[in-house]
Design goal:
The protein is an alpha/beta fold. It has 3 domains: 274 residues, no CATH class; 35 residues, no CATH class; 154 residues, Glucose Oxidase, domain 1. Helix 4 runs parallel beside helix 5 and helix 5 packs parallel to helix 12. The chain is globular and about 75 Å long. The chain starts with 19 loop residues before the first helix and ends in a 20-residue tail after the last helix. The model has no long low-confidence stretch (mean pLDDT 95). The protein binds FE2/S2 (inorganic) cluster. FE2/S2 (inorganic) cluster (FES) binds next to loops. The site of FE2/S2 (inorganic) cluster has 9 residues, from loops.
């Protein structure tokens, strides 16, 4: 059927009652009950897929944003119809939002496919919502545009700018070290998150917004504009118009998010000193396209991509400063010699054309020139070795270079509970040059890979002035955190990976130079431990989503997606 001949709007995908004439008649009748005129119901439809929820502070301004999208859609001649999906508010979910990212992506995919719409605007913001929406949209493959709620603006405390959540951690570390008291930490708590929007630093939400823009799935310059800036509403209106322009085109997510576009996204991730979580989400998006994010290739890109953006947690500034400095287009222009400039964007223009038309003014304090970078090399490296045969990740831009070449004794925690119970025990046998290891916090553990890789410095060491230690786990880390922290060790301990055999007193050697992480234990001793250990995978999950997750979740290098959601799932 030619595209012109395909049914549009309300005529798409009629509900099956065995009589299509009746199905159309019934649908029009019920749609009319919502007050739409016949003229409106004849229009093509742009779905607005949103994730507003009382349990998601980052999406507080979403209703206003959705109204602005609707204005744009109506003005361009189509009918906007909003629909809700699962929402994932980072701090309101137990055990961790990552567990539910795939659930949200299934919701997004199936509701796009099942409901009558010709294009869709995806409105997300908080950490897992944008990856979930992109994953779902890639699989549904209807023309789609991403819009984000935008970052929070900073607050003030005693003359100092504060932004969630790097400053949350900084003050909490000072509180643990006894530098500030209960009264002061309570005051800070009220000043960290003072507006609508997502975390104000280059955490996971900001990173994923930047990546969505780098992939070409969002309007130019829209990643960093603050949630409360009127420009964000104008961008939302413009997004609605753009979505109408996509109707009937072949500019679907699978045509925009190509292997080359994914490589552009990795370059931008590295240049902005972005979150380690983005590696997982990009791997999951790639898997939906039948591609794999190659961690060895990540190292090649990391070695040739400078860090250009001076944002917290690795630098000094906040997302609102990046917006004012020129935004992601300014970063991409600085990287243009490294990018695939022919990649398409949702407007039909290429990344190269987008960069060229952007205002050339840049605030060089925030977005550096490529010959004066914040760091010469990219922010992330993948590590391999007998401890992580399938890879692990270190955010070197947030780590202490003094710990990059380190061999030391491990102090091992067998689970999150064990960590919570013992880390502050005054009798814990731990020293400043030890390595802290956490097991059973990976994707197949009961905790479903939480952001627990930022192991706290034991209180007695924190009070003695220790600020950083090498920490290793199969968990993730918040994009707002900092420290010398090796994450995503794969296979995870709960799957019986080598991490599960590490014991207190073992020696581990990290070499960032060699990209290696090795457990210095003789092979026959490892074999002996292996024979005597049963993997501590999540206990038998008997029903529902717990069962689905424990049966089908993949390891970090595949993005922790469910095997059956990846493209060509039958082959896996
Ligand atoms: Fe939503 Fe940080 S809690 S972006």
């Amino acid at each position: 059927m030619s595209d012109e001949a395909k049914p549009r709007g309300l005529r798409r995908g009629l509900t099956n009652y065995g009589d299509f004439g009746f199905s159309g008649y019934l649908r029009r009748s019920f749609a009319s009950s919502m007050g739409y005129s016949r003229e409106m119901l004849e229009r093509p439809i742009v779905g607005i897929c949103h994730s507003e929820s009382g349990f998601n502070n980052c999406h507080r301004a979403m209703p206003e944003l959705v109204e602005a999208v609707k204005r744009g859609v109506l003005a361009a001649g189509a009918l906007p119809i909003e629909f809700p999906t699962v929402s994932l508010g980072e701090v309101f979910l137990v055990p961790t939002s990552l567990k539910f990212r795939n659930l949200m992506s299934m919701d997004v995919e199936e509701m796009i496919r099942a409901q009558p719409m010709d294009a869709v605007v995806l409105v997300g913001g908080c950490d897992k919502t944008v990856p979930a929406q992109l994953m779902g949209a890639v699989s549904a493959d209807l023309p789609a545009i991403q819009l984000v709620t935008g970052p929070m603006s900073t607050g003030r405390y005693h003359g100092e700018r504060l932004g969630a959540c790097t400053d949350c951690r900084r003050f909490w570390a000072r509180y643990r070290a006894g530098e500030i008291d209960d009264v002061e930490i309570a005051e800070v708590e009220q000043r960290l998150a003072t507006t609508a929007g997502t975390c104000a630093v280059m955490g996971t939400a900001s990173t994923m917004a930047s990546i969505a823009e780098a992939l070409g799935m969002m309007p130019a310059g829209s990643a960093a504009v603050p949630a409360v800036d009127a420009l964000r509403l104008r961008l939302a209106e413009e997004t609605g118009r753009m979505a109408v322009g996509l109707i009937g085109s072949d500019l679907t997510p699978s045509h925009i998010i190509t292997e080359q576009a994914l490589e552009n996204a990795v370059r931008v991730l590295l240049a902005i000193g972005g979150s380690t979580n983005a590696v997982i989400h990009l791997a999951a998006i790639a898997g939906r396209l039948g591609l794999q994010l190659d961690l060895k290739r990540l190292n090649v890109l990391s070695d040739t991509t400078p860090v250009l953006v001076d944002l917290k947690p690795t630098g000094a500034f906040y997302m609102e400063d990046l917006a004012a400095a020129g935004g992601i287009p300014a970063v991409m222009r600085e990287l243009r010699h490294l990018l695939n400039l022919d990649c398409l964007t949702v407007t039909g223009e290429t990344i190269g054309e987008r960069i060229e038309r952007w205002d050339p003014w840049v605030d060089r304090a925030v977005v550096r020139a490529r010959d004066q970078p914040v760091q010469d090399e990219g922010g992330l490296v993948a590590l391999f070795g007998n401890l992580a045969p399938n890879g692990a990740i270190l955010k070197r831009s947030a780590a202490d270079p003094k710990l990059f070449e380190k061999e030391g004794r491990c102090v091992v925690f067998s689970s999150l509970d064990d960590l919570a119970n013992r880390i502050d025990d005054p009798d814990l046998d731990v020293h400043a040059d030890d390595i802290l290891v956490l097991k059973n916090a990976g994707p197949r553990s009961e905790s479903c890979m939480p952001e627990a890789g930022y192991l706290p410095i034991p209180k007695k060491l924190a009070r003695a002035g220790v600020k950083d230690m090498l920490r290793i786990s199969d968990a993730r880390m918040s994009g707002t955190a900092f420290g010398t922290i090796v994450l995503h060790v794969s296979p995870d301990a709960a799957s019986g990976g080598p991490l599960s055999f590490v014991e207190t007193g073992d020696v581990i050697a990290l070499s960032v130079r060699d990209r290696s992480i090795e457990l210095r234990v003789a092979p026959d001793e490892l074999q002996r431990r292996k024979a005597g250990t049963a993997p501590a995978a999540a206990g038998p999950a008997k029903r529902g989503y717990d069962w689905l997750h424990s049966e089908f979740v993949t390891q970090a290098e595949f993005g922790c997606d469910f095997r059956f959601l990846m493209k060509d799932a039958a082959d896996r």
